[in-house]
């Protein structure tokens, strides 16, 4: 398959133009977003949707998140990733396969239904994770494009995926909120440096390969600025697979936890990695494609087909 986004194969970084649309469907009556929301996503590469879930639904999700953190015994070992240099839990991966409630959340029409509309295809979960960004110990996520990693290490062919971060705790200016570069989704920053074997064992704690060079980052930040959406629990931050983003460490006592779901278009299923010796494990990059049938209703129930 032709590699439209070569990365980690050249001696110096390159800025390549995106070869495909961001929002793949225009607004029409019955769309799950307004025309302005679709335009915002297309133009800036992200969209903030406030109050998508009720306080009562958030209490349910926060209780489940606390339970998963306090009693990880029922979780698959490899899915629990610690912060660099500590035993504090940084993330729990494949939460949709280890928690019924998280699977229900991912399938909700407010998430999967919106993703399917914007990607103009049925969607499946490429990856899910609970990010805890614990107080005092939560370390940074350096600048990166998720797609660069998913293309190089997972074999994701095209930019036809998006992420949704459901805020489980208040994102304030102080506790390491996600920072994004608006408009960066239209430029592919190819990275230098060959992917080490089993890179994920290191990168999920602190990523050092597939990291954009400072000159490219500076150019994007000077041109487009940096934006850190804030919000209370129940806010959902939706962003394109190629929008440049990162977050600072959290030295406040207040955790910055979120539930993170990556929806990939069924037509964009993974092939062989474009720049790695072997694919990453399924708990990070699903190779079984199970199209999601979005459901409607309060998260306390199973929901009905949307
Ligand atoms: O490597 C990955 O798939 C994960 N790493 C980061 C920093 N963001 C995307 C994804 O969760
Ligand atoms: Fe990321």
From TrEMBL:
Classification via NCBIfam families: ectoine_ThpD (TIGR02408)
Enzyme Commission number: 1.14.11.55
Family label: Belongs to the PhyH family. EctD subfamily.
InterPro entries tied to this protein: EctD, Phytyl_CoA_dOase-like
Catalysed reactions, as listed in the record: L-ectoine + 2-oxoglutarate + O2 = 5-hydroxyectoine + succinate + CO2
Name of this protein: Ectoine hydroxylase
Signal peptide: none
Classification lineage: Bacteria, Pseudomonadati, Pseudomonadota, Alphaproteobacteria, Sphingomonadales
Enzyme class: oxidoreductase
Family matches, as Pfam families: PhyH
Function: Involved in the biosynthesis of 5-hydroxyectoine, called compatible solute, which helps organisms to survive extreme osmotic stress by acting as a highly soluble organic osmolyte. Catalyzes the 2-oxoglutarate-dependent selective hydroxylation of L-ectoine to yield (4S,5S)-5-hydroxyectoine.
Gene3D superfamilies: q2cbj1_9rhob like domain (2.60.120.620)
Alphabetically ordered keywords of this record: Dioxygenase, Iron, Metal-binding, Oxidoreductase
Subunit structure: Homodimer.
Required cofactor(s): Fe(2+)
């Amino acid at each position: 398959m032709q590699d439209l986004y070569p990365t980690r194969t050249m001696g110096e970084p390159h800025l390549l133009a995106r070869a495909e649309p961001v929002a793949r469907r225009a607004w029409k009556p019955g769309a799950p977003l307004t025309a302005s929301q679709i335009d915002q996503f297309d133009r800036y590469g992200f969209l903030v949707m406030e109050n998508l879930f009720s306080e009562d639904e958030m209490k349910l999700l926060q209780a489940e998140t606390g339970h998963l953190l306090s009693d990880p015994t029922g979780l698959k070992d490899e899915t629990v990733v610690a912060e660099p240099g500590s035993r504090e839990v940084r993330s729990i991966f494949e939460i949709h396969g280890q928690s019924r409630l998280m699977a229900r959340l991912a399938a909700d029409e407010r998430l999967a239904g919106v993703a399917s509309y914007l990607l103009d295809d049925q969607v499946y979960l490429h990856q899910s994770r609970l990010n805890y960004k614990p107080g005092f110990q939560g370390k940074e996520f350096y600048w990166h494009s998720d797609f660069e990693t998913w293309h190089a290490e997972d074999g994701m062919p095209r930019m036809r995926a998006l992420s949704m971060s459901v805020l489980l705790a208040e994102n304030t200016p102080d506790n390491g909120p996600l920072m994004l570069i608006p408009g960066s989704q239209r430029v592919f920053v190819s990275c230098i440096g060959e992917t080490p074997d089993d890179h994920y064992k290191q990168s999920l704690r602190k990523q050092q390969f597939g990291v954009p060079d400072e000159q490219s980052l500076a150019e994007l930040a000077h041109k487009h600025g940096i934006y850190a959406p804030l919000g209370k629990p129940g806010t959902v931050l939706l962003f394109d697979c190629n929008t440049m983003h990162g977050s600072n460490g959290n030295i406040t006592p207040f955790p910055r936890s979120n539930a993170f779901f990556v929806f990939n278009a069924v037509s964009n299923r993974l092939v062989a990695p474009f720049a790695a010796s072997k694919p990453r494990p399924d708990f990070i990059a699903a190779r079984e494609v199970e199209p999601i049938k979005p459901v409607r209703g309060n998260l306390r129930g199973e929901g009905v087909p949307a």
